[in-house]
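Subject: sequence -> structure tokens, single chain

Hey, anyone have a minute? Need the predicted structure for the following. Not urgent.
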Amino acid sequence: MDQPNSFSYNTIIRALSEDEPIESITFFTQMLCVEFVEINRFTFPSVLKACAVTARVEEGKQIHGLLVKFGFDTDPFVLTNLVRMYVMCGFMKSAHQLFGINSKSVRNESKQGGNVVLWNVMIDGYTKIGDLTYAQKLFERMPNRSVVSWNSMIAGYSQNGLFKEAMELFREMQTSNFLPNYVTLVSVLPAISRLGALELGKWVHLYAKKNKIEMDDELGSALIDMYSKCGSIDEAIKVFDTLPRKNLITWNAIIGGLALHGRANDALHYFSRMEEARVAPSGVTYIAVLTACSHAGLVEEGRFILNHMINVGLEPRVEHYGCMVDLLGRAGFLHEAEELILSMPFNPDDIIWKALLGACKMHGNIEMAQRVAARLMDLDPQDSGSYVALSNMYANVGKWEAVSKVRLKMQEMGIRKNPGCSWVELDGSIYEFLAEDDSHPKAREIHLMLEEISVQLKLMDYKPDTTQVFLNMDEEDKENALTLHSEKIAIAFGLIRTNPQTQLRIVKNLRICDDCHTWIKLISQIYKRKIIVRDRKRFHLFENGACSCMDYW
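Reply:
Had a minute. Here:
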């Protein structure tokens, strides 16, 4: 062009900001040197975007100075992009200062609703740095909200582990006459998955169908993951089979779901189908398949899969070795598992040593457990897991002096054991119970139900496995302690709150103990219930006195 003008420069800067952001910044500096081309309010948003996506905060600060010089610092369009630049670069203090100035000007000018986009940018920024308290304050103060406002908060809660809050806000969104969109569903499904809220998950799926929301790989894999983690693996398979397009993400979701349910042969079958479909497996795929082998004790298949991974040119990471250690350890190959750890091309992390420690506990190898626990205590002195596992092993063989030493050390270091916690979903609501929990309004009815269950179990010749109580107390006290494990309380509550033969779904934060496992098998037989329990490791489907894990978990 003989005489490029502001429009032409702005057009090129905007186009470059999408694909070549560094070039966009360079072109902007060239524009500054052209005497007869005037910078306007449409120039700054694109170059600020380029600074944001490339994390060029120093250049962004210089552009901030320029826009103040040119008098665009109060323009809502420019200001929003300036704040977004600081947010994306992690400079929340600068973003907050600009936001505060803008908020005051909005109030002074009595602009209805203010700049909703600017509020959304700030909320998103605070959720990304994990400050949900301040994000919530902003959300509550918003003069007007948009669907993006709700989505940012729901996603923020989910990504920061506040799953119950994410679900509650999702319900509040619907009662506030805001229609969830694609982003809402993808944001809330991880929270639903984590808490095992199947009924709400089904509603989300139905909502997506009714509103013709595109079922792409991200939403499809989120639904597969939700059904898998809520105990409905057959529904997860249906979703997978009806997806219009399948890619690496969706294959990984279904194989991971099958692994979680201990359906190792099905996981291997889907792995073969994936290869037949010419979809190259990733490291995540191999973690899922190795996990499936571990849950079923398929040692030779696990060895084959690890070798297969190496043969296709993928280098095993610490997670893959962790799966193999878990597989070998569960199957009793403790020394081979330890040798594998020591021969790894990188330093083992605490997860790998915990897998071996768990295997030592399972097979009663105290000598190796002491060695492994010592390594874990060096790696993470404040983690209670190694202390508790070692203490429990000592208690199991009656070494109470050793138990006291371990627990005294925990006390001196201020280390506390994570309490057992279980959740049950009834009529779309989540109820939470801790071990020995008597705080629930229905506590009296729950304890009466537990007493009734005890009577029924005695008729079945059930004897509590008091070896699972690692405290030096008499047998009666041990039996009472076992009765008040969190999953038992949750199941008792479920039995008194639901109609006969209604399926119960429980989520537990720890591995289910041997006694609870036997107890729930018998409950499923006595009360003719299907009971699905998701513990820290996997799913258990209890029905007619048996468990889908075949007592291998």
